[in-house]
Each structure stands twice: as structure tokens, then as C-alpha cells.
Design brief:
There is one protein chain. The protein is about 55% helix and about 15% strand. It is α+β, with helices and mostly antiparallel strands. Helix 1 crosses helix 11 and helix 2 runs antiparallel to helix 9. The radius of gyration is 35 Å and the shape is elongated.
Length: about 400
């Protein structure tokens, strides 16, 4: 065995460029496989964290349609927000009705006769609790107006303000919009992002929107919970709001974070494994081709070894050992390369890198296996070379 190792070391030192190229090929392939798996694990962890932050603390409650198709004019009780906020783990809750979807609305900057309504503006009725739950306002000083049924006030989304020509970069005192020819004083601005999506909206008191629609059957409630409380709240919120008929309300389903993370991780792992496996297979073919060329170039040496008494098994073992050494070295370098790729990718994307020791330790083993598999055919071919023919070929 020691003689085989010495022969392999000598052979690799003589053909340094070829050895380095083969080691590099194995390193890139194993490194790509391990890096793909590492990035998949890191990305899955980040996606899981983002999902937890974005969805597991939000529950939406919608109205369930009656079986006979009848219209229920009052589904949410007047104190629905207070009932929801009384539930453990609930931070805030509020109702919303998109009036423009169920009732004709026209929004204009001027109340003069003949004023042309601005297209694309949505009229939304909402309670103060809704804006709080949706994180739709930075300053909640004036949101209480939305809970007063007779208050003619409105909040504007940035897109709606731009289209209407309403400046919101200063005091809003004296600014108005007209909804169906009724003036509304502008008291604030709502954020365009988040679950509310109010960029193109004019938000008015919820009670006025329900009065215009003559029903709250199309209303919905947004419930913001403490972190991780979404699943528990979703299971009891309908009963808390309508203890007399909880079936009239349908809370949004909250997916388990563990199952969601596992699903994301599984899909990313599969993709990474397929890509890495293809690269590893290409590396095996490259190593095998290189060793076949090496066998052809060393035909006379093989013949001389056979003439001096080396058995076919010894000749085959020489090439298998060479493939194992090259593959192991390539896998070792590949693990280091993969670790660097995972860390750099995580830093560039603002992720927390996840380096699985098992993945990193598998690099040399994968390279070793690839080198051995790639050397099987060349070693068998070398072992079958006849000494007489080999010496004559020189």
C-alpha cells in the first residue's frame, strides 16, 4: 500500500498541471453541490423567519355567505373590535369595508358643479383599530375620528393624494376631497405598504361605508396578534366576536411555521441536490477522461511494470489510488470553497449563514467517491494491457 501511495505521489508531482486541473474540477463540482445545499438551508431558514414575521401574527376574519344566498345586513356587532381585542394574545383589531367594490363612488378634488371625478381612487371604510392592526399609520393622533359615524374625515394613501393633487407634505388643515359630492376633511396619510394596501385609497369612517352599502356582508376584520399567537387566535376569534353564531365568520387559516419551513427546505434541498449531482457527474466524466488519457500516455510504463512482475491488480490499484487521492484533495478544497460561497452569499443578502458541519465534512468523502468511481474503467483498461504489446508500442 505504501508503494502505491509513493508511486501516486511521484506521478502527481511529475504531472502537476494535469493533477491541479483534475483537483480543481472535483473541487468545483463538490463545492457547488455542498454550497447549493448550504445556501438552500440558509435560504429556507430565512424564508421561515420572514414568514413568521409577516404572517403568523396576522389573522383575517371574513364573513361566511349564507347557505340560501340571503343577504345579512349586520354580521359584525358594533363592538366587534373591542370583543376581538379582549382575546388573549390579540394586540389590535379592526374592521374594513371596500365601499368602491359594492357601491358606486366618485372621488373629486373639488366640490364645484361639473368637477370631474379622479379615476382609480378606492373608497375604503375602516375603524381606527384596522389602521393600527395593519400598521398603516405612523401617527395615530387623529385615527379616533374613524370611529365617529358622523365625522366627515378622510385619510389618503400616497397614490390617491398624488392623483388628486393633494399635498400631504405639510399641514392638512383646510384640505378636502369630495366623495359622491360630500366634502371630507383630510386629517392624515396612510402607509401604502403592508396588508392594508391603501396606496390608492381614501379611508373614511367604517360606519359611513356600512351605511352606504347597507350591509357589512363584504366587510372583514384584521387581527394583529402577539408574535406566534396567530394559530391560537384564529381558533377562537370567531366565537369571541359572534358567540351566538360563530359559523357566520371565517378566520383565515394560519399555516404552521414548522410545516411551512420544512416544505420550503425540502423543495430547495431537492433543487440544490439535482444541480449539484449533475455537476458531480460531469466531474466524474472529466476525471475518467483525464485518467484514460493518462493510461494511454503511460502505456510503456505499465508494460515495464508488468514485465518486472507487477500484477494486473497492482496496476489497477495504482490508478484507483490516484483517483482516490485526487478526488479526496478536490473534495477537501471543495468544502472550503463551499463554506466561503455560503458565507459570502449570506452576507450579500443580509442573511444569517447556516453551515451544516455534516455537509462540510461530506466534501472529502464525495470527492473520494467521485475519484474512485471515475478511475474504475481506466484502471481496468490499464490492468488489461499486455506487457509485450506495451513495450513494443514504445
Amino acid at each position: 500500500m505504501r508503494d502505491l501511495v509513493d508511486d501516486v505521489v511521484v506521478e502527481l508531482s511529475v504531472r502537476k498541471v494535469r493533477a491541479l486541473l483534475v483537483v480543481g474540477a472535483v473541487a468545483l463540482s463538490t463545492g457547488a453541490l455542498i454550497a447549493s445545499l448550504g445556501i438552500a438551508v440558509t435560504a429556507a431558514a430565512q424564508v421561515g423567519a420572514d414568514i413568521a414575521a409577516a404572517t403568523l401574527d396576522v389573522v383575517e376574519v371574513r364573513v361566511e355567505s349564507l347557505a340560501d344566498g340571503a343577504l345579512d345586513t349586520s354580521v359584525f356587532p358594533d363592538d366587534a373590535d373591542d370583543r376581538a381585542e379582549a382575546v388573549d394574545l390579540v394586540a389590535s383589531a379592526g374592521r374594513r369595508l371596500d365601499l368602491s367594490e359594492v357601491y358606486p363612488t366618485a372621488v373629486a378634488r373639488s366640490g364645484h358643479a361639473g368637477a370631474v371625478p379622479t379615476p382609480g381612487i378606492l373608497v375604503v371604510g375602516a375603524t381606527s383599530g384596522y389602521l393600527d392592526a395593519a400598521h398603516a399609520v405612523d401617527d395615530e393622533t387623529y385615527t379616533f375620528w374613524l370611529d365617529r359615524p358622523t365625522a366627515q374625515v378622510a385619510f389618503l394613501g400616497p397614490g390617491a393624494a398624488r392623483d388628486l393633487g393633494v399635498p400631504l407634505d405639510g399641514p392638512t388643515s383646510g384640505l378636502r376631497v369630495w366623495i359622491n359630492a360630500v366634502p371630507y376633511d383630510i386629517v392624515g396619510e396612510v402607509e401604502p405598504d403592508g396588508p392594508a394596501a391603501l396606496d390608492q385609497a381614501v379611508v373614511i369612517p367604517y360606519a359611513q361605508a356600512v351605511a352606504s352599502a347597507r350591509s357589512d356582508a363584504d366587510a372583514r376584520m384584521l387581527v394583529r396578534t402577539l408574535p406566534g399567537g396567530g394559530a391560537q387566535v384564529a381558533g377562537v376569534i370567531a366565537t369571541a366576536i359572534r358567540p351566538d353564531d360563530p359559523a357566520r365568520l371565517e378566520p383565515s387559516a394560519v399555516v404552521s411555521l414548522s410545516s411551512l419551513r420544512n416544505g420550503v427546505s425540502t423543495q430547495l434541498d431537492r433543487l440544490a441536490a439535482w444541480i449539484g449531482s449533475i455537476l458531480l457527474a460531469l466531474a466524474v466524466l472529466l476525471v475518467a477522461n483525464s485518467m484514460i488519457v493518462s493510461v494511454a500516455a503511460r502505456t510503456s510504463e505499465i508494460g515495464l511494470r508488468r514485465a518486472l512482475g507487477s500484477s494486473p491488480v497492482t496496476i489497477a490499484g495504482l490508478f484507483v489510488m490516484e483517483g482516490a487521492v485526487v478526488g479526496g484533495l478536490g473534495g477537501l478544497v471543495g468544502s472550503g470553497f463551499a463554506s466561503s460561497v455560503v458565507v459570502v452569499t449570506s452576507i450579500l443578502n443580509g442573511w444569517d449563514p447556516v453551515l451544516d458541519p455534516l455537509h462540510m465534512a461530506s466534501g472529502p468523502l464525495l470527492g473520494l467517491a467521485a475519484g474512485v468511481v471515475a478511475s474504475v474503467y481506466p484502471s481496468v483498461r490499464a490492468a488489461r494491457i499486455s506487457p509485450a504489446i506495451a513495450l513494443r508500442a514504445d
